[in-house]
Amino acid sequence: MSQAQPSQTQQAELAQLVSQGLVTDPASPKGRLLAASAQLFKQKGFAGTTVRDIAAEVGILSGSIFHHFPNKESILKAVMAEAILTCLARMESAVAKLETTPARFRALVRCELEAIHGISGVGFTLLTSEWRCLSADSQAEILKLRQRYEGLHREVLADAKAQGWTQVEPFLLRHFMRGALAETSNWFHLNGDLSLEDLVDQICLAAGMRPS
Amino acid sequence: MSQAQPSQTQQAELAQLVSQGLVTDPASPKGRLLAASAQLFKQKGFAGTTVRDIAAEVGILSGSIFHHFPNKESILKAVMAEAILTCLARMESAVAKLETTPARFRALVRCELEAIHGISGVGFTLLTSEWRCLSADSQAEILKLRQRYEGLHREVLADAKAQGWTQVEPFLLRHFMRGALAETSNWFHLNGDLSLEDLVDQICLAAGMRPS
Amino acid sequence: MSQAQPSQTQQAELAQLVSQGLVTDPASPKGRLLAASAQLFKQKGFAGTTVRDIAAEVGILSGSIFHHFPNKESILKAVMAEAILTCLARMESAVAKLETTPARFRALVRCELEAIHGISGVGFTLLTSEWRCLSADSQAEILKLRQRYEGLHREVLADAKAQGWTQVEPFLLRHFMRGALAETSNWFHLNGDLSLEDLVDQICLAAGMRPS
Amino acid sequence: MSQAQPSQTQQAELAQLVSQGLVTDPASPKGRLLAASAQLFKQKGFAGTTVRDIAAEVGILSGSIFHHFPNKESILKAVMAEAILTCLARMESAVAKLETTPARFRALVRCELEAIHGISGVGFTLLTSEWRCLSADSQAEILKLRQRYEGLHREVLADAKAQGWTQVEPFLLRHFMRGALAETSNWFHLNGDLSLEDLVDQICLAAGMRPS
DNA sequence: TATGAATGAGGTTTCATTCAT
DNA sequence: CATGAATGAAACCTCATTCAT
Questions:
Q1: pTM of the predicted model, to two decimals?
Q2: Hey, which of A56, B60, B139, C62 would disulfide with B64, CB 3.0 to 4.6 Å?
Q3: CB-CB: which of D133, D179, D207 is closest to C179?
Q4: Residue A176 approaches strand F within 7 Å at CB
């Protein structure tokens, strides 16, 4: 279960998010609880994970969890929210630094893959796999964050279409990409034969979006 | 929840599978149980569906379920197995009838989308979404069926690469496609603005595999 | 599970009981059901044996059992009643043939051990081990049979005391003997190193009741 | 259901076992659970006792039982283990204090009868009556304890034979005694006409082991 | 803040029994 | 007589949650 180490840049970004109160300090009790929960939810599913499992993982007793979260579902919501916020911050800063559409596309793909594969938090995959475990209210809350995130993708894909990089409608292409990227969590492994960098290249290639 | 009506051809194919004992007659008690279970598992997840829910849906009492299946998990396994077998039969017959690689590719995409969107059974999406709810033994059993199914895809994609339709490695391309197709269950709706036929076209377009 | 074969005499006695309607013909469907039930009740206990177990053993389906018996408990009652009646008949005929008290005592011990160890029916042990599984009404019914049976023992033991074979009160001695004999079902095996005849001798020896 | 009060000596011995961690403090929640379970198992049998029965007896809800024991069977196992350990401790201390074989024999009989009749715990009878309700693994565990216990008996009986108190083989005599003693639970009652002390005398008399 | 015993609703599963065929 | 699908009550057990300490 070796997680790729976040780079210095990423740590700095994370520290900033923490200081803004958007993300919980991963060293705090609450932060360790979130990390452990995300890990377990990914392995066994939300419904398949008990609060006792989580408590055991973090070294406390199950009752103590409810000092940090009002109920189990709120843990999932927090994991999801932080996963989006972390990823979003990185995507926005990446897009801001780049100019060409293919480069931006590539950066977005990279950020999303990094999020999916657990660089700075493993919670991103849960957004799709455990979506239905959220109550309607929580879904609405998270959806707002997701929309900011999806908006960024759409903008870049719209540019791509306008500039002739693809013929597929942005909203369709985004759906295809989302599915293809999410699925990587089922077969791609960091530290495997294929590097993350290579994977990003192949995805850009398959999408017809290759930097000249 | 209006399901698209299976065409006459599809009904004939299904009847054949039933007569071969590969698939349960959907009119039989067991068949209705499977259909109801698949529906509920898709809506609320395997863990989120109780056997009482299933029994209520099919109009029997919860205890009666266990005349047909030894336990809840075996229902999921049966749903998955039948979903694969049904789809596989249709894919094999489609590929056998067609000659060119793009036409075959298109046929496979169409079959898989039909399976995902519940034409002749709703169970196909569960293969990914509820995979981890299967015990290790059941996973191994289903995996054997899945491999026959994935093999067919790989063959066609290998032809596509050899014939210059794509530059992406077949196994990668298949992963991307699987993800993109599976994700359609979250946003595409039969009877919506976009027809299934159009969706197939757009996917072929995005994959660079367009029949001349 | 080789059962000792009943001797010719025993078979004749059994046939007589059958013809009197006191015992079910072991070759009849009902008789095979009783034999199978007794076997299973002994192995797994009454509560631990399901009617499906019994049906499977006898090669029918569970529902069919209720053509022969109104409910599960009535099977146990029948097994017990027949076990007592069979044993009682043999004891009475043995006592009638013998004159001296030690010989009679020995015959009773022998009959009881034969009953316990499944010569002509395995049901005898159930009388103690599964007694509490009987409803109050059934217990009362069986108790009447048991009393005839216990009466025979007490008579002989009373003679033994009167004739100076033992100093222990008949009712106490009978309790001790019953326990010791019942316990043999947990350790003594026909066809083992110790023969049944030897076992009878040792018990008479331990009870101080040795024929000169 | 009036239980004989344990004497001061017995209470001291029990306290020692508790402090050694071999036996659960009968005043603790777990201890009360064990006592109630033993009582009910004896009355209605293991299979005939529900966890709700036990919970009701001790004044908690059924779910709460599973904080103390992982499942119902483990309660039975614990009851049995503690019954053996308690009895064993008393037997060992009694044998250590006495010198002659008949005196030792008498002490063992007394200890076993006290255990059977619920002085300091009612669980002893369950060892035989509910033995088969234990899983194979649990049986093996308990068997180890039982062997220490039976070993003590065999030693004393071997001395008895060597010293001419009896002609019966120790292993046979022990089987007879075990059965006779166990059976007392079906007919002998503390506070009845016959005192426990008298019962012990009669048993020694019947076994030919009477102190001069 | 942490503990751990207790809650209580609800889960899956078992099983004796019924009854139309 | 036998079948086998269905019943329905009740079994064991799980688990998120509470709360006195």
A1: 0.86
A2: B60
A3: D179
A4: no
